[in-house]
Amino acid sequence: MTTPLIAPAGLKNVIVTDTAIGDVRGEEGYFHYRGHDATRLAAEVSFEDAWHLVLYGALPGPSDGAAFTHRVGELRPLPGGVLDLLRAVVGPDTEPMHALRVALAALGLGDRPLMDLPEDERTEAALRYAAVTPTILAAAHRLARGEAPLEADPGAGHAADYLRMATGNTDADAAAALQTYLVATIDHGFNASTFAGRVIASTGSDMASCLLGALGAFLGPLHGGAPSRALAALDEIGDPANTRDWVRGKIARDEKIMGFGHAVYRTHDPRSELLKQVVTRFDSPLVRQARAVEAEIEAGINELKPGRRLYANVEFYAGVLMSEVGLPPSMFTPTFGVARVVGWTVNVLEQVRQGKIIRPSARYTGTLQ
Q1: What is the CATH topology of the domain spanning 227-324?
Q2: Which residues catalyse the reaction (predicted)?
Q3: How confident is the model over 81-89, as a mean pLDDT?
Q4: Is position 70 annotated as part of the catalytic site?
Q5: What gap in Å lies between CA 240 and CA 252, rounded to an integer?
């Protein structure tokens, strides 16, 4: 009998499968989609082009890109029955991501297992769910505020239409800034939500079930909920001159400093560096505060925990960027989800093709009778 290997806590550094979607190189501070530098893509291509790349394996040419953007636009409007459901269940205290769970479950009624579908139907399911997600989230946000949902515009870009549906903001610069963030967060290795979705996909289940599993992991404060908590830290600190004392208090109480440190990166998070460049263009009091506080937090950590190497992660400047384009903190995690649902669907498709159920072992540490 083969003795199972004992993996470290959190499966850290354990390779569980092969993937052609992308890779994160923590020591280098670099990640890519299909071999393309992801931060460069975020600065140069549309969300739809990056989506085409991770889904089909190549950036589209002009005609393919236009066709893909058109197809995504066609799938973005929310089915009437789901909108009626949202009107029935969303109240003033409803979190948009919780409403998304309900809507995805409703959309999945009657879905067949992915393992029983041909490849083209699997791909269509991936597109359908990812395309409609921002419409669901924007509608839930507006309904919770007592506002009428705005209909999707199939002819608009994905990032710009989401921002308009959620906030009414049609500013081109704001949409471009948000698009950069969305492209940079489509996929990022085997994070908890992606892995959760792939575990379910390995059973051959339907797309909605896979996405609901990923969504459940994503809702954890240590994962998708971090951007709003990082911005809350800026509110808590206030004047950057207060930062060192704030850091000392956090470390003395052994509390996590939200927006700093990463499970993979051992140097600067390239996504954070990219978003810092983007938000600097706004030159607002919030941006100036964030940059000053970032420097003070890094210095404070280095002073109190030399060698720890904790740098700002993507959540630190993500909250600043989303605030600058008019999204409230309640929409920070949903906006992250607008991008990551594309990565989830692509990972689900790849996992289903492998045709092998994920079934690790556990080590029993309880008592024997």
Answers
A1: Cytochrome p450-Terp; domain 2 (1.10.230)
A2: 262, 315
A3: 96
A4: no
A5: 19
- Which residue's entry shows tokens 């500013």? 171
CB 250 within 8 A of CB 302: no
CA dihedral 340, 343, 199, 349 (to 10 degrees): 150
Q: Closest Cα to residue 276, out of 177, 179, 189, 172?
A: 177
Would you list the domain boundaries of the chain?
34-224+331-354, 227-324
For residue 194, give both structure tokens.
Answer: 């992606």
The residues, ordered by sequence, that sit 6+ positions from 85 with a Cβ below 8 Å of its Cβ are 102, 103, 106
Selecting among 296, 298, 315, 324, the annotated active-site residue is: 315
Give the architecture-level CATH label for domain 34-224+331-354. Answer: Orthogonal Bundle (1.10)
pTM of the model: 0.92
Query: In 10 A of CB 83, how many CB atoms?
Result: 18
Predicted local distance difference test score (pLDDT) of residue 53: 98
Residue 223: active-site member: no
Q: What is the pLDDT of residues 213-261, one digit of tens each?
A: 999 999 987 777 666 777 888 888 998 989 888 888 988 898 888 777 7
Options 262, 296, 298, 324, the catalytic residue:
262
Report which of 111, 277, 92, 287 is spatially closest to residue 180, judged by C-alpha positions. Answer: 277
